[in-house]
């Protein structure tokens, strides 16, 4: 499959290769045994502009109400994390440089982002939004230099990157440098998936496969563990499979989504250098929660082999 090219109004996650590859098309219920009699209820919708699905095993008579609760929760969280909704919390923070009385969800996600940032030697950094915006604006021009933005522009953007320049507490969130901005597209989808799982478990469901931006499996499918496909390195269309029970999985591919038609400029940025040269072609991470898998898969594509054993969080890395 060819990489997707970002346009000025492109709303794909900047790192969500799963959303544009055969992985989600192949992420399916594949029971080891013949399907049991338990019914399977399926919901389809949208979350942060991407297609989302939920598969529930067993219908306790309240699936329709459960799906309505899921939709309400997704809409609530989009009002926190969407980069494209002008009134969202993250949009207001990026516009004003400060956000007072942030939601508990935003504080929780940023606190986890800081923990992953520390564990990955700074490679996971949601303040790379200025680099993303620079490349999107550059390649949106009809006369764009195919070599990319000029070095001085990249240096200026890098001066506005750094999670250490973000204050996070229950009372306010703010930048200490002008022109900084956040993107949480490398972790928010996972958080939304985890919140949906929490709601469904609270309503009595125990066996489910969620794809609400990231994939999380709880319990079992109709006939065994859930089976989810992930890309086998550079082999286009080739999937390897994971059997998941009470685990989440996320895949990142720097050049799965690109800014330029030649496919040289990918959408995951090194926060210290500003480019993705030398990045792995694709990485899949499993973890206890979708938010952790989401964030770590972003960083692991940039990590050297020697660092992979120290990422923690009870996560496992599946290189292509």
UniProtKB/TrEMBL annotation:
The record's catalysed reaction(s) read: L-threonyl-[protein] + FAD = FMN-L-threonyl-[protein] + AMP + H(+)
Magnesium among keywords: yes
What UniProt keywords apply to this chain's record, in alphabetical order? Answer: FAD, Flavoprotein, Magnesium, Metal-binding, Transferase
Q: Tell me the GO molecular function terms.
A: metal ion binding; transferase activity
Domain of life, per UniProt, equals Bacteria
Documented EC number(s): 2.7.1.180
Keyword hit for Lyase: no
Q: Which SUPFAM superfamilies match?
A: ApbE-like (SSF143631)
Which cofactors must be present for this protein to function? Mg(2+); Mn(2+)
Binding-site list for Mg(2+):
186, 294, 298
Q: Per the annotation, how and in what number is the cofactor bound?
A: Magnesium. Can also use manganese.
Pfam short name (any one): ApbE
Per the record, the similarity remark reads: Belongs to the ApbE family.
Its recorded name reads FAD:protein FMN transferase
């Amino acid at each position: 499959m060819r990489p997707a090219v970002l346009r000025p109004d492109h709303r794909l996650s900047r790192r969500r290769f799963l959303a544009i590859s055969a992985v989600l098309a192949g992420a399916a219920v594949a029971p080891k045994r013949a399907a049991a009699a338990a019914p399977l209820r399926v919901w389809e919708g949208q979350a942060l502009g991407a297609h989302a699905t939920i598969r529930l095993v067993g219908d306790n008579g309240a699936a329709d109400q459960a799906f309505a609760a899921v939709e309400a929760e997704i809409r609530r969280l989009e009002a926190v994390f969407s980069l494209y909704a002008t009134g969202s919390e993250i949009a207001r923070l990026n516009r004003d440089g400060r956000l007072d009385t942030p939601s508990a969800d935003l504080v929780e996600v940023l606190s986890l982002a800081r923990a992953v940032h520390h564990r990955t030697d700074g490679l996971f950094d949601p303040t790379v939004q200025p680099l993303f915006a620079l490349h999107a604006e550059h390649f949106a021009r009809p006369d764009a230099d195919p070599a990319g933005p000029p070095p001085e522009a990249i240096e200026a953007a890098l001066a506005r990157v750094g999670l250490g320049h973000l204050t996070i507490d229950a009372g306010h969130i703010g930048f200490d440098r002008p022109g900084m901005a956040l993107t949480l597209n490398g972790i928010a989808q996972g958080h939304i998936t985890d919140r949906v799982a929490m709601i469904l478990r609270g309503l009595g469901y125990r066996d489910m496969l969620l794809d609400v931006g990231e994939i999380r499996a709880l319990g079992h499918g109709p006939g065994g563990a859930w089976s989810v496909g992930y890309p086998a390195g550079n082999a286009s269309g080739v999937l390897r499979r994971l059997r998941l029970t009470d685990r989440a999985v996320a895949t990142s591919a720097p050049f799965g989504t690109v800014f330029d038609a030649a496919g040289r400029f990918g959408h995951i940025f090194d926060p210290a250098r500003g480019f993705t040269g030398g990045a792995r072609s694709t990485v899949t991470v499993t973890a206890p929660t979708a938010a952790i898998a989401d964030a770590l898969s972003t960083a692991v594509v940039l990590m050297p082999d020697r660092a992979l054993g120290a990422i923690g969080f009870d996560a496992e890395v599946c290189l292509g």
